[in-house]
Design brief:
By secondary structure, this protein is mainly alpha-helical. It contains 23 helices and two strands. Strands 1-2 form a two-stranded antiparallel sheet.
């Protein structure tokens, strides 16, 4: 009851004309940031953070958090319509969202994505509201071995559950690890694989790689094959929304499972990107018809979007309760709290009740506002499909180039983006999966750092990954996922032998 009373007080703080205005501005800016490739929620919040220094902390955090919610919603728009992930966590949405758009079902795919995003965020906000003390104690147990085990679980689930041959998946993943290793070694300070190029000191930015692999690669392939969108696929009205909402309850198990995966990855913190990939893999694994994944199934949109929003929202929990940011955006918000003179931690809930519960209340209202805004403005984006592809292709390439340039304000990034575009084109022509490459590029550096820290702590003993029940269970599950195809074959052979 105490939490409910505090939450109602938070709603009283939020429902003021000024804070509501900040909420709508934040959502609008966030959707725009999510749609533009290369910006991203963290960059958008960082760029706009100085604008909030003159505001009251509560109003400022409401606007900045709503930018984040909007970016989460907006990332799905270009992923589905053009196969260009506006955000890294939208990559998994492209696997089935874009095929649906090609089939003339863009309205259905977008409605499913936005609604699933809302559901995932709502579950995560409930978690933040009622389970913050329990989750905070649990998150304190995580060290480098636990982080590496989580990342290994993500990699292994992709190898064991992917539809592509494991050898192709591992090859793509190894290339991703190699690209992630380029630059400065964070553990020793040595340069790796820079070949005398100072420009490679910072390595390959995964946002630039994603823009190139999916955006430019798709454009090159489409220019070769030719593409004409159907006119009816550009329409999104209330009839389409209501028809899609009727279908969604059938996939409630996928929504619940994806919400749980997202909350787990957000709090631990694993992040929205691995949460979306893992959720997609689990949805495919437990589906009665796994072959339909990758060809345009609504379940392939529901799973990653639900998980990404659940992870993105629940990542604020350890930031508020412990001062441990669960995502890059949470880290930027953490910096904002420090600037405003607020110290994250358990005492924040005691000393700054208006601030904390105002933020939590804004999560509820922000996601409702976000859902309404994207459902009403998406026809503007969907209408782009009516424009001939010969006009749209150069515009998309220009937007991708601008997005790549704005990441570091470097022209080299535009050339790197084009290089990754060629790699993406070759991968598609040879039927190699790109998702494992992107996953390894995004998480490779983090996984390497966690592994080396674990080895330093344990003096090179791999037993550290089974040193307690928590890390042991995660590491064991990862190995089961990795060898799942062999285990499944063995079980089938055993059944066949018994039947004979």
């Amino acid at each position: 009851m105490e939490e409910l009373n505090a939450l109602f007080h938070g709603f009283a703080v939020v429902i003021t004309p000024y804070n509501l205005m900040m909420m709508f501005i934040g959502i609008g800016l966030g959707v725009l940031i999510g749609v533009l490739p290369g910006l991203g929620g963290a960059n958008g919040v960082a760029i706009l953070l100085p604008l909030t220094f003159t505001m009251a902390p509560t109003s400022a955090i409401i606007m900045l958090s709503c930018i984040y919610w909007g970016a989460l919603f907006g990332g799905a728009i270009t992923s589905i319509l053009f196969n260009i992930p506006g955000e890294p966590w939208s990559v998994a949405t492209t696997f089935d969202g874009h095929p649906m758009a090609k089939q003339g079902k863009s309205g259905e795919a977008l409605t499913a994505a936005f609604t699933s995003s809302f559901v995932g965020a709502f579950v995560a906000v409930l978690l933040v509201t009622f389970l913050s003390p329990v989750v905070a104690r649990f998150a304190l147990k995580f060290g480098p071995p636990e982080f590496f085990a989580i990342q290994m679980l993500t990699f292994c689930s992709f190898v064991g559950m992917g539809k592509e041959p494991p050898l192709k998946t591992i090859s793509a993943m190894m290339l991703g690890f190699a690209l992630a290793a380029v630059g400065l070694d964070t553990m020793t300070g040595q340069l790796r694989m820079t070949f005398g190029w100072m420009e490679l000191l910072r390595g390959f930015d995964f946002l630039i790689a994603v823009i190139g692999l999916f955006g430019i690669g798709e454009i090159l392939l489409t220019m070769e094959e030719g593409l004409a969108f159907k006119g009816e696929s550009a329409r999104l009205n209330m009839q389409v929304v209501l028809q899609t909402w009727k279908k969604l309850p059938k996939y409630w198990v996928t929504s619940v499972r994806s919400s749980m995966v997202g909350c787990w990855m957000g709090v631990t913190p694993g992040g929205a990107t691995p949460a979306s990939f893992m959720s997609y893999g689990l949805a495919k694994r437990f589906s009665r018809d796994p072959e339909k994944f990758g060809r345009g199934t609504i379940e392939g949109v529901i799973a990653p979007e639900t998980a990404a929003h659940a992870a993105g929202t629940s990542a604020l929990l350890p930031m508020l309760t412990l001062g441990i940011p669960g995502s890059p955006t949470a880290a930027v918000l953490l910096g904002g709290l420090m600037i405003w003179g607020l110290q994250p931690g358990p005492m924040l809930f005691v000393e700054q009740k208006d601030f904390v519960w105002g933020l939590i209340a804004s999560m509820y209202l922000g996601n409702i506002v976000g859902l309404i805004v994207v459902l009403t403005t998406v026809p503007l984006f969907a209408a782009v499909l009516r424009i001939p592809f010969s006009i749209i292709a150069p515009v998309i390439i220009a937007i991708c180039a601008v997005g790549a340039y704005t990441v570091h304000n470097a022209m080299l990034d535009v050339y790197v983006m084009m290089l990754f575009g060629v790699i993406g084109y070759v991968f598609k022509k040879l039927n190699y999966p790109m998702a494992p490459l992107v996953l390894a590029l995004v998480l490779g550096d983090m996984a390497e750092t966690a592994f080396r820290q674990s080895m330093l702590v344990s003096h090179g003993n791999l037993g550290v990954f089974w040193s307690n029940p928590l890390v042991g269970s995660i590491a064991t599950l990862a190995l089961v996922m990795l060898f799942w195809p062999l285990l499944a074959r063995g079980l089938q052979a055993l059944k066949g032998a018994k039947a004979a």
